[in-house]
Design a protein that fits this description.
alpha/beta; 7-stranded parallel β-sheet; 2 domains; TIM Barrel; Enolase-like, domain 1
Length: 387
C-alpha cells in the first residue's frame, strides 16, 4: 500500500438508532434508564441508551483505503463537524497516533478508531499490532444485564451459564436486593460469578458495608464496581479494608464532561482505594491505562456502552493487547441490541471472544442494515486547500 498517499479526502457519517431486543436490558415492566449523561435538555438517567443515536464514520484516503469508526452514543454534530474540518486533508503519516490533533472530547474516540483502522490497513496489519501486539488469542467476556426482578435473576443467570458463560454483571442500586439476587444465582446457576455495578448509587460507605457483609456470606461475587461516589477515595480504601470482595473503580474517559481523566487511576492507586479497574477509553489512552494497571500488578477489564460491532471489534483488540485485562470484559452488545450492523459478528464461544483476523479492526459494516437503521447521513470532502 502507498504510504505516501494517505491524505484524508472524504469523511461520511451515518447516524443510526439500533434498538435493543425486547426485555434484553431490564425485566419486563421495569423502566430504569441507563444513560448517565444529560441529553436533549433532559437530566441524566432519564433516557434509555438504545433510544439514542450512534454515529458511524467512513474515512477515505487518497490511496483508496477506507477506515471505519464508531462514536459513543449521543454525539454533538457541532463538535463532529468542527473536528472534520481539522482532519480533512491531513496525511495519516503526518499524525501521531498517540496524540491526534483533536480535543479530548466525547467524540474523540470515534475519529481515533477510524484513523487507526485506516493506518493499520495501510500497513496490512491487525489493529492490535499498533498497540504492541496481542498477549492472548482470546479475550474473556461476561454476560450482562441491567435491572431484573427478584424472581427472574436466578433463571436469567442460569440461561447464560448454560451457554458457557461463567460470570454475569448486573446494574443495581439501593432499592435492589442484591444479596437475594446472588443467593438465587448460587442456587439456579451454581459456579456462576457475579459482578455488581451500582454506578455509585449505594450512596454511603455505611450502606455499602451492610450489603458487602451479606454478599460475603453468599460467596459468588467476583467484584463490586463503583459502589459509592467515586470522589470518596478514603471511603473506597476503608471498604477494601472492611471486605475481602474486590472493590473496583471505573475509569471511563468517554465521560470527560463529568471530569473523568486517565490520572484518576493513579489517584486511586495512591490512596490504596481499589483492587483493580474497569477501563473504558480510546486506543492510545487504554494502552496508557493498561500500563498503569500492569505496573501496579492489578487486573482490569474493558468496559463499554453496549455498543455496535465496530467499537466491540476494537475493544477485543485492546483487551487482547493489554496484559492487565484478565477480568471478563463488557463485550456483549450483539446479545442486547437487535443487530451490530456488521456483515459478520465477533466469534464468541462463551466465555471467550476470538481476536478478529485480517488488517485493521476487522469489522465490515453491512451497508444495507445501516441504511435500514439510518436517521441521517452527512458527507464532507477535501477540496485541496492543504499543502
Amino acid at each position: 500500500m502507498r504510504l505516501t498517499e494517505t491524505r484524508i479526502v472524504a469523511m461520511t457519517y451515518h447516524e443510526v438508532v439500533v434498538p435493543a431486543h425486547p426485555d434484553a436490558i431490564n425485566s419486563r415492566g421495569v423502566d430504569k434508564p441507563l444513560h448517565m449523561l444529560p441529553t436533549g435538555g433532559r437530566a441524566g438517567w432519564s433516557v434509555q441508551f438504545d433510544q439514542l443515536p450512534k454515529l458511524l464514520l467512513k474515512l477515505e484516503l487518497e490511496n483508496g483505503v477506507v477506515g471505519w469508526g464508531e462514536f459513543y452514543r449521543d454525539h454533538s454534530w457541532q463538535t463532529v463537524e468542527a473536528i472534520t474540518e481539522v482532519l480533512l486533508g491531513q496525511r495519516l503519516t503526518d499524525l501521531s497516533l498517540q496524540a491526534l490533533p483533536i480535543p479530548q472530547v466525547r467524540e474523540h474516540d470515534g475519529f481515533e478508531v477510524a484513523i487507526w483502522d485506516a493506518y493499520a490497513k495501510c500497513l496490512d496489519v491487525p489493529l492490535h499490532v499498533l498497540l504492541g501486539g496481542k498477549v492472548r488469542d482470546a479475550v474473556k467476556v461476561g454476560a450482562w444485564s441491567s435491572y431484573r426482578t427478584d424472581d427472574e435473576v436466578g433463571p436469567y443467570a442460569g440461561k447464560f451459564r448454560d451457554q458457557g458463560f461463567d460470570c454475569i454483571k448486573f446494574k443495581c442500586d439501593l432499592a435492589d436486593d442484591v444479596v437475594g439476587w446472588c443467593e438465587a444465582i448460587s442456587r439456579d446457576a451454581p459456579g456462576m460469578q457475579v459482578i455488581l455495578d451500582p454506578n455509585q448509587r449505594w450512596e454511603t460507605a455505611g450502606d455499602a458495608r451492610r450489603i458487602l457483609r451479606g454478599l460475603e456470606r453468599v460467596g459468588n461475587v467476583l467484584l463490586v464496581e463503583d459502589p459509592i461516589p467515586i470522589w470518596q477515595l478514603s471511603d473506597y480504601r476503608r471498604l477494601r479494608e472492611f471486605s475481602a470482595i474486590p472493590i473496583v473503580r471505573h475509569v471511563s474517559l468517554p465521560y470527560v464532561s463529568q471530569g473523568q481523566r486517565d490520572h484518576d487511576a493513579i489517584s486511586a492507586l495512591t490512596e490504596h482505594a481499589v483492587d483493580g479497574f474497569n477501563f473504558n477509553a480510546g486506543l492510545a489512552k487504554f494502552k496508557a491505562l493498561d500500563a498503569i494497571a500492569t505496573t501496579a500488578k492489578l487486573s482490569c477489564w474493558h468496559g463499554s456502552e453496549i455498543d455496535l460491532g465496530i467499537l466491540e471489534h476494537v475493544y477485543v483488540h485492546q483487551a487482547a493487547a493489554a496484559s492487565s485485562c484478565t477480568w471478563p470484559s463488557d463485550i456483549f452488545g450483539r446479545a442486547i441490541r437487535s443487530h451490530d450492523l456488521l456483515v459478520t459478528p465477533l466469534r464468541i464461544t462463551p466465555p471467550f471472544v476470538a481476536v478478529p483476523e485480517g488488517s485493521g479492526h476487522g469489522a465490515v459494516p453491512d451497508m444495507d442494515l445501516i441504511e435500514i437503521h439510518q436517521t441521517q447521513t452527512r458527507a464532507f470532502h477535501y477540496k485541496g486547500v492543504r499543502s
